[in-house]
Amino acid sequence: MSRILFINSVCNGSTGTICKNLYKAAVEAGHECCIAYGRGETPEGFNTIKIGNRLDIYLHVLKARLFDASGFGSKYATKKFINRIEEYKPDIIHLHNIHGYYVNIEILFKYLKEHPEIKKIWTLHDCWAFTGHCAYYTYAKCNKWQTGCQGHCLNKNEYPQTIFSRSNKNYLRKKKLFNDIENMILVTPSKWLKGEVEKSHLNDYQITVINNGVDTNIFKYTESNIKERYNINEKKVILGVASVWDKRKGLDTFVELSKRLNSNYQIVLIGLNNKQIRYLPTNIIGINRTEDVQELVKWYSAAEVYLNTSIEETFGMTIAESISCKTPIIVFNKTALPEIAKNNGVIIDKIKIKNIIKSLNIEKQSFILDNSKFTLNNFVSNYFILYKMIEEIKR
Predict the structure, then answer these.
(1) How far is the C-alpha of 189 from the C-alpha of 35, rounded, in Å?
(2) For 340, left (φ over 0), alpha (ψ -120 to 50), or beta?
(3) pLDDT one-digit tens code per residue, 257-271
(4) Do residues 3 and 88 touch, judged by C-beta distance below 8 A?
(5) What is the pLDDT of residues 142-172, one digit of tens each?
(6) N or C, which terminus of the chain has less Cβ within 10 Å?
(7) In terms of Cα–Cα distance, which of 314, 313, 322 is closest to 248?
(8) 384, 25 Cβ separation under 8 angstroms
(9) All domains of the chain, ordered by start, with CATH?
């Protein structure tokens, strides 16, 4: 059996849940596990290592904001973390999001290069590893990452936001740091992201696609009175969910749609902040981000359709969750979205409000939704195959 160390920015949220699901399954299979993370609360019942503290994060954020140095702060915290790795002596290090202002990538990857005996898996949840700055670039229509991120950065005001761009310098530093790591396999949650990685400076690594998994014991059709609580019992709910409603998630599209809908429909958006809710049209119900998963399941189940207005997703976990709750989806034909939504709803080629309205004619009961690719069991099984394979490398 192996000793597995997971490294991720958080222990909650979508990527944190992915780590915890893998941890639980691995422990049940007899492996010893630990999650190292940078931000948020320590989850109960898990063996964890907290990397740094709030001051370390604040200083890292400041450095990133001023000097476009996301990933290059937290030196002292990372050196202490390396000591903890030495004490833990993992057989496998499973990297997830290493950006997020909590770890120094120069120190961490120097250690990984110096320890070829440790097996490494790096699950890429976005594009940050192979760009000079951003985690996503489709919305900005930028392909500079394919030629070194030279010139003006179109995304410097997006996460990780900065005043002075050093995207070309960062690109070259990342390229040098992230390559030539022995015994490392990359994982992407979609074929689309794999295709992007294959066009990047990381293309010499073996790349495996493993779709993210949904716990179907939780995300399943559930009857409730949630529509009655909001006095919309007679209306067809168009649901949108996001952890952060930034530009790429398409909040403006929902606002425009609300102007064109008749009274038979009700838009409900979950995950908004208070300011966004204050500025919503009166015919949109806005709800703050909820940690109550059952509340989310009730909304997925009650909705007539789940509308994802994003044009930039490496997977689309909310899509898989909606499908598991037996609600069909509408997505745009962009990035990984059609791959995840295939046969489970409507895929819109041209991003126009009239095309969304036309697609609302979905009859929920007529859909036989298939989430078999996105079950937690399938997800865990695929990773266990990968763990077994990587254990055999150069044994």
Answers:
(1) 20
(2) alpha
(3) 999 999 999 999 999
(4) yes
(5) 999 999 999 999 999 999 999 999 999 999 9
(6) C
(7) 313
(8) yes
(9) 3-212+376-392 (3.40.50.2000), 226-374 (3.40.50.2000)
